Amino acid sequence: MASACTSCLKARYGILVAFASSMGMWILLRATGALCGQEPKGCSDKHATAAVTFLMASLWIAGTPHSAVVSVLPIVILPLLGVGGKPIDLANQYFNATNFVLFGSFLLATAIQEVGLHRRVALRLLSSISGDPKVVLLAFMMITAALSAFMSNTATAALMCPMAVSLFDELRYDGESPDQQQCDVEQSTEGSECRSVQDTSCNTDNLRKFFKRLLVGLPYACSIGGISTLTGTGTNLVFAQLYSELTGHTISYSSYLVVGSPICLVQLVLCWAWLCFANGGLGLPRGYRIPTASLKQRYLELGRVSSSEVVVGGLCLLTVVGWIFRAPGWCSGFASWFPNPAAIDDAVVVMTASLTLFFIPMRQASTNGQANCTILEWSKVEHKLPLGLFLLIGAGAVLSCAFQETGLSSSIGQALISGLGGMSLFPVALICSICAAALSQVTSDVAVANILLPIVHGLAQSLKVDPMALMLPTALSCSLPYMLIISTPANAIAFQTGFITQADLIKNGFPMVLQGLAILLAVCFSFGFQVLRTEDAVSWSSRWAA
Question: Is 288 in a helix, a strand, or coil?
């Protein structure tokens, strides 16, 4: 009861502080005439937009009220202040093409979970690997990253973390094979710590250390895998939406895949290497093998592949192929087969596949034990719908429009130019990336992208460079939430298993953030910008060189 009252008091104080600070900022801006030297009306609009953005950022960081509620504030506050146009224009931003890409991807992910395809794939791959602890760790992380590229990071962590814990329990309480195997290995090596078959404390402690590393790696793999695809995480969708609105250029799924996949692969390998070899390694005796018989047994218990799993897997594969070959650039693509090729975007592709699942019969019961008439039913989907994420992405679009209409982004960019003192492009991109990575540790990565991307767009305009040069590194840096439990739900899920602590996340997360920044900046400045905007590559290169 006392803790509940304390939480309520903190929430109330957080809301009061956020409103008071935003009002103080508004008064200060109006009193000093900061950020502009234009007519009073223009200044007033900029001040109002800045105050609303500061208010939302404060509430997002405070965590009270819910981020979804905070995301709807612009549709009420901005019209009252005379900024952003009519409420109907603002409301349209909450249901744009980007949100329908997210909606369709969510429906496909729900279907995968409904028929149990994700569990079958995970168990099949894990049961076929050798018992080498390094290979087991890599397999868990690769499967987690692959799933999070198409499913939400939270759902992926909720699947893989319990699977790792159950494997630990089976190894710990098996009582024969793991204990006997480890002690046999230890007795054959010098410096043995395990003196007999009956001495199991060494085995349990070593296994716990290994699984601590594993359960640190799983939420990291969730975040890393989300970088690889345009639909892998909300920040990628926010970036694509805002870049399209602010510049008029659309980022395709296939072009982003070329940029995101190398970042994901290199970062995943380096993360695995860090967990294997840094800070004393995995903690298991040399030569120890983790038995995977229990995983094989669980896979066999699933039975034969059902027709529903085949249908869902086939539609997911067709969706990815459709995204890649819709308008690949090196050929006309299948969109040219239709009367209006420009209307066939990524949202049309994924919605076509996902809506089909509402019409295909399901012959067996779903994973929750209830019988379905079709593979997807709205009664099962509506309770899982990530409405909060939709509203977060919409809030970013609304704030972006307000920044553009009032000229606030240009004014902030000009102010930052004077402070940066003529730096070249790379240091500016590095500073923006560090700010994004730091903020993503303490608040929602989507909220950070909503706040920073309009600002860095204005900064890019002031620098007279393509906005991609700053927006892409900033957006990717929002997907490095490795250091705190609250940084992402995946971290919290792993923490709740009891294997890891906040200190473990900080100790391993800080190097992960540094190597993540280095990798994404290297990819962006080597070929990433050219891939996403090929037609301007020559002019950008000459401008950066100058």
Answer: coil
